[in-house]
Amino acid sequence: MNSKKAKLEFQRKFLERAGQNFMHVKRMMDALPNVGFYIKDVNDRIVTLNVRNCEISALKDEFDAIGRKSSDLFPERIGQECLARDALVRKTGKPVVGGINYATVDRSPNPTIYSVFPLHDSAGNLIGTMCGFYYTEKADSSHLDRTKLQPALVRMTQHVGETSSLETLARLTNLSVTHFRRIFMDTFKETPAKYALRLRLNRARDMLETTDYTVAAIALEAGFFDQSHFVKAFQRIYRLTPTNYRKRHAGIRPKKEEV
Protein backbone atom coordinates (compact mmCIF):
# COMPACT_ATOMS: atom_id res chain seq x y z
CA MET A 1 0.00 0.00 0.00
CA ASN A 2 2.60 2.50 -1.14
CA SER A 3 0.69 4.69 -3.57
CA LYS A 4 -1.72 7.47 -2.63
CA LYS A 5 -4.36 5.84 -4.85
CA ALA A 6 -4.11 2.55 -2.95
CA LYS A 7 -4.34 4.34 0.39
CA LEU A 8 -7.41 6.29 -0.69
CA GLU A 9 -9.09 3.08 -1.80
CA PHE A 10 -8.24 1.38 1.51
CA GLN A 11 -9.69 4.36 3.37
CA ARG A 12 -12.79 4.58 1.18
CA LYS A 13 -13.71 0.91 1.61
CA PHE A 14 -13.29 1.06 5.38
CA LEU A 15 -15.34 4.24 5.80
CA GLU A 16 -18.10 2.76 3.63
CA ARG A 17 -18.27 -0.20 6.01
CA ALA A 18 -18.29 2.15 8.99
CA GLY A 19 -21.31 4.01 7.60
CA GLN A 20 -22.06 6.76 5.14
CA ASN A 21 -21.79 9.47 7.79
CA PHE A 22 -18.19 8.68 8.66
CA MET A 23 -16.80 10.67 5.76
CA HIS A 24 -18.56 13.66 7.30
CA VAL A 25 -17.12 12.75 10.70
CA LYS A 26 -13.67 12.76 9.12
CA ARG A 27 -14.25 16.22 7.63
CA MET A 28 -15.59 17.53 10.92
CA MET A 29 -12.52 16.31 12.82
CA ASP A 30 -10.25 17.99 10.26
CA ALA A 31 -11.97 21.28 11.08
CA LEU A 32 -11.36 21.04 14.84
CA PRO A 33 -8.11 22.84 15.72
CA ASN A 34 -7.47 21.44 19.20
CA VAL A 35 -8.52 17.79 18.94
CA GLY A 36 -6.47 14.90 17.60
CA PHE A 37 -8.35 12.04 15.96
CA TYR A 38 -7.67 8.70 14.29
CA ILE A 39 -9.43 5.60 13.04
CA LYS A 40 -7.77 2.17 12.84
CA ASP A 41 -8.91 -1.18 11.49
CA VAL A 42 -8.86 -4.46 13.43
CA ASN A 43 -5.27 -5.07 12.33
CA ASP A 44 -4.14 -1.78 13.93
CA ARG A 45 -3.62 -0.17 10.52
CA ILE A 46 -4.32 3.55 10.49
CA VAL A 47 -7.28 4.42 8.26
CA THR A 48 -7.32 8.17 8.79
CA LEU A 49 -5.84 10.93 10.91
CA ASN A 50 -7.14 14.45 11.17
CA VAL A 51 -4.99 17.50 10.47
CA ARG A 52 -4.21 18.15 14.14
CA ASN A 53 -3.00 14.62 14.73
CA CYS A 54 -0.76 14.87 11.68
CA GLU A 55 0.82 18.01 13.12
CA ILE A 56 1.30 16.48 16.56
CA SER A 57 2.84 13.39 14.96
CA ALA A 58 5.07 15.48 12.63
CA LEU A 59 3.47 14.02 9.51
CA LYS A 60 3.04 16.05 6.33
CA ASP A 61 -0.46 14.62 5.84
CA GLU A 62 -2.44 11.49 6.62
CA PHE A 63 -0.97 9.64 3.64
CA ASP A 64 2.28 9.36 5.58
CA ALA A 65 0.39 7.16 8.04
CA ILE A 66 -2.46 5.35 6.25
CA GLY A 67 -1.92 1.59 6.26
CA ARG A 68 0.80 1.78 8.92
CA LYS A 69 0.70 1.07 12.66
CA SER A 70 1.49 3.35 15.59
CA SER A 71 4.54 1.19 16.25
CA ASP A 72 5.81 2.04 12.76
CA LEU A 73 5.58 5.77 13.38
CA PHE A 74 6.47 6.46 17.00
CA PRO A 75 9.12 5.57 19.59
CA GLU A 76 8.63 2.07 21.01
CA ARG A 77 7.10 3.08 24.33
CA ILE A 78 4.59 5.44 22.77
CA GLY A 79 3.71 3.12 19.90
CA GLN A 80 3.12 0.15 22.19
CA GLU A 81 0.87 2.18 24.51
CA CYS A 82 -1.26 3.23 21.53
CA LEU A 83 -1.56 -0.36 20.35
CA ALA A 84 -2.44 -1.58 23.85
CA ARG A 85 -5.31 0.90 24.21
CA ASP A 86 -6.86 -0.12 20.91
CA ALA A 87 -6.37 -3.82 21.64
CA LEU A 88 -8.17 -3.46 24.99
CA VAL A 89 -11.16 -1.77 23.35
CA ARG A 90 -11.36 -4.45 20.63
CA LYS A 91 -11.11 -7.25 23.21
CA THR A 92 -13.76 -5.92 25.59
CA GLY A 93 -15.97 -4.16 23.04
CA LYS A 94 -16.25 -1.32 25.53
CA PRO A 95 -14.97 2.24 25.09
CA VAL A 96 -12.23 3.76 27.22
CA VAL A 97 -13.40 7.26 28.15
CA GLY A 98 -11.32 10.00 29.75
CA GLY A 99 -8.02 8.15 29.86
CA ILE A 100 -4.85 10.12 30.62
CA ASN A 101 -1.72 9.73 28.51
CA TYR A 102 1.59 11.18 29.66
CA ALA A 103 3.80 9.73 26.92
CA THR A 104 2.77 12.23 24.25
CA VAL A 105 4.06 11.94 20.70
CA ASP A 106 5.30 15.53 20.51
CA ARG A 107 6.88 15.40 24.01
CA SER A 108 4.46 17.96 25.34
CA PRO A 109 4.82 18.51 29.10
CA ASN A 110 1.02 18.43 29.26
CA PRO A 111 -0.75 15.05 29.16
CA THR A 112 -3.60 14.27 26.80
CA ILE A 113 -7.11 13.21 27.72
CA TYR A 114 -8.27 10.52 25.31
CA SER A 115 -11.29 8.35 24.57
CA VAL A 116 -11.22 5.24 22.39
CA PHE A 117 -14.40 3.67 20.99
CA PRO A 118 -15.01 0.42 19.09
CA LEU A 119 -16.30 0.72 15.51
CA HIS A 120 -18.83 -1.69 14.01
CA ASP A 121 -20.32 -2.10 10.57
CA SER A 122 -24.06 -2.14 9.90
CA ALA A 123 -24.20 -5.86 10.69
CA GLY A 124 -22.62 -5.32 14.11
CA ASN A 125 -19.22 -6.74 13.20
CA LEU A 126 -16.24 -5.12 14.91
CA ILE A 127 -14.14 -3.42 12.22
CA GLY A 128 -11.81 -1.16 14.18
CA THR A 129 -11.41 1.64 16.72
CA MET A 130 -11.49 5.40 16.74
CA CYS A 131 -9.86 7.78 19.18
CA GLY A 132 -10.14 11.47 19.98
CA PHE A 133 -7.80 13.34 22.32
CA TYR A 134 -6.88 16.81 23.49
CA TYR A 135 -4.20 18.39 25.66
CA THR A 136 -4.95 19.58 29.16
CA GLU A 137 -4.07 23.15 30.06
CA LYS A 138 -1.89 22.21 33.00
CA ALA A 139 0.27 19.16 33.43
CA ASP A 140 -0.29 16.93 36.42
CA SER A 141 3.31 16.26 37.30
CA SER A 142 2.57 13.69 40.00
CA HIS A 143 3.47 10.86 37.62
CA LEU A 144 6.90 12.37 37.16
CA ASP A 145 7.53 12.62 40.89
CA ARG A 146 8.13 8.88 40.86
CA THR A 147 11.16 9.29 38.60
CA LYS A 148 14.59 10.66 39.27
CA LEU A 149 14.27 12.91 36.22
CA GLN A 150 11.62 15.21 37.70
CA PRO A 151 13.85 18.19 38.59
CA ALA A 152 15.50 18.15 35.16
CA LEU A 153 12.18 17.90 33.33
CA VAL A 154 10.81 20.83 35.29
CA ARG A 155 13.87 22.86 34.33
CA MET A 156 13.55 21.95 30.65
CA THR A 157 9.82 22.67 30.39
CA GLN A 158 9.91 25.92 32.38
CA HIS A 159 12.94 27.30 30.53
CA VAL A 160 12.25 26.18 26.97
CA GLY A 161 14.09 29.14 25.45
CA GLU A 162 17.29 28.42 27.35
CA THR A 163 19.95 25.79 26.78
CA SER A 164 20.68 23.62 29.81
CA SER A 165 23.86 21.58 29.75
CA LEU A 166 23.87 17.89 30.59
CA GLU A 167 25.98 18.74 33.63
CA THR A 168 23.33 21.17 34.89
CA LEU A 169 20.48 18.73 34.34
CA ALA A 170 22.35 15.84 35.91
CA ARG A 171 23.27 17.95 38.93
CA LEU A 172 19.60 18.81 39.49
CA THR A 173 18.81 15.10 39.74
CA ASN A 174 21.86 14.22 41.87
CA LEU A 175 23.02 11.82 39.17
CA SER A 176 26.24 11.56 37.22
CA VAL A 177 26.08 12.78 33.63
CA THR A 178 26.43 9.21 32.35
CA HIS A 179 23.73 7.84 34.65
CA PHE A 180 21.37 10.74 33.91
CA ARG A 181 21.74 10.34 30.16
CA ARG A 182 21.15 6.58 30.38
CA ILE A 183 17.96 6.93 32.45
CA PHE A 184 16.72 9.68 30.15
CA MET A 185 17.30 7.53 27.08
CA ASP A 186 15.61 4.53 28.72
CA THR A 187 12.59 6.67 29.62
CA PHE A 188 12.08 8.78 26.49
CA LYS A 189 13.95 6.78 23.83
CA GLU A 190 15.87 9.90 22.76
CA THR A 191 18.64 12.16 23.99
CA PRO A 192 17.97 15.16 26.26
CA ALA A 193 19.06 17.40 23.37
CA LYS A 194 16.42 15.98 21.01
CA TYR A 195 13.79 16.19 23.74
CA ALA A 196 14.68 19.85 24.32
CA LEU A 197 14.46 20.56 20.59
CA ARG A 198 10.93 19.15 20.45
CA LEU A 199 9.95 21.34 23.41
CA ARG A 200 11.23 24.39 21.53
CA LEU A 201 9.34 23.38 18.41
CA ASN A 202 6.17 22.91 20.47
CA ARG A 203 6.61 26.44 21.81
CA ALA A 204 7.21 27.83 18.32
CA ARG A 205 4.25 25.95 16.88
CA ASP A 206 1.94 27.40 19.52
CA MET A 207 3.19 30.94 18.81
CA LEU A 208 2.71 30.49 15.07
CA GLU A 209 -0.88 29.47 15.69
CA THR A 210 -1.84 32.06 18.30
CA THR A 211 0.26 35.21 17.83
CA ASP A 212 1.27 37.66 15.12
CA TYR A 213 4.95 37.58 16.06
CA THR A 214 7.35 37.45 13.14
CA VAL A 215 9.12 34.19 12.38
CA ALA A 216 12.39 35.80 13.49
CA ALA A 217 10.90 36.84 16.83
CA ILE A 218 9.43 33.37 17.38
CA ALA A 219 12.80 31.80 16.62
CA LEU A 220 14.49 33.83 19.36
CA GLU A 221 11.63 33.39 21.84
CA ALA A 222 11.73 29.61 21.39
CA GLY A 223 15.48 29.44 21.94
CA PHE A 224 16.87 28.99 18.43
CA PHE A 225 20.15 30.61 17.36
CA ASP A 226 18.52 32.54 14.54
CA GLN A 227 15.67 32.43 12.02
CA SER A 228 17.55 30.20 9.60
CA HIS A 229 18.28 27.60 12.29
CA PHE A 230 14.62 27.64 13.36
CA VAL A 231 13.20 27.33 9.84
CA LYS A 232 15.44 24.36 9.02
CA ALA A 233 14.59 22.56 12.27
CA PHE A 234 10.85 23.24 11.92
CA GLN A 235 10.71 22.14 8.30
CA ARG A 236 12.68 18.98 9.02
CA ILE A 237 10.10 17.88 11.61
CA TYR A 238 6.82 19.26 10.24
CA ARG A 239 7.70 19.24 6.52
CA LEU A 240 6.28 22.74 6.21
CA THR A 241 7.92 26.11 6.55
CA PRO A 242 6.80 28.10 9.61
CA THR A 243 5.08 30.58 7.27
CA ASN A 244 3.08 27.86 5.51
CA TYR A 245 2.23 26.26 8.86
CA ARG A 246 0.85 29.59 10.04
CA LYS A 247 -1.21 29.98 6.86
CA ARG A 248 -2.78 26.58 7.48
CA HIS A 249 -4.09 27.84 10.82
CA ALA A 250 -5.10 31.34 9.75
CA GLY A 251 -8.64 32.02 10.91
CA ILE A 252 -8.99 28.67 12.67
CA ARG A 253 -7.64 29.28 16.14
CA PRO A 254 -8.44 32.26 18.35
CA LYS A 255 -5.47 34.49 19.02
CA LYS A 256 -4.13 34.98 22.51
CA GLU A 257 -3.87 38.47 23.85
CA GLU A 258 -0.37 39.84 23.55
CA VAL A 259 1.17 41.96 26.25
For this entry, give a set of tags:
about 260 residues; alpha+beta; Beta-Lactamase; Arc Repressor Mutant, subunit A; 5-stranded antiparallel beta sheet; 12 helices; globular; disordered C terminus
- Count of discrete domains: 2
- CATH fourth-tier homologous superfamily of the largest domain: PAS domain
Element-level helix/strand string: HHEEHHHEEEHHHHHHH
* Radius of gyration from the alpha-carbon trace, in angstroms: 19 Å
If you had to describe this structure to a student in words, what would you say it looks like?
It is a single chain. The chain has 259 residues and is α+β, with helices and mostly antiparallel strands. It folds into two domains: 4-135, PAS domain (Beta-Lactamase, 2-Layer Sandwich), CATH 3.30.450.20; 141-249, Homeodomain-like (Arc Repressor Mutant, subunit A, Orthogonal Bundle), CATH 1.10.10. The protein contains twelve helices and five strands. It has helices at residues 4-18, 22-31, 51-56, 70-73, 76-92, 150-158, 166-172, 177-188, 192-210, 215-221, 227-238, 242-249, and strands spanning 36-41, 46-49, 96-101, 112-120, 126-135. A five-stranded antiparallel beta sheet has the order 2-1-5-4-3, with helices on both faces. The longest helix is centred in the last third of the chain and has 19 residues, at 192-210. The chain starts with a helix and ends in a 10-residue tail after the last helix.
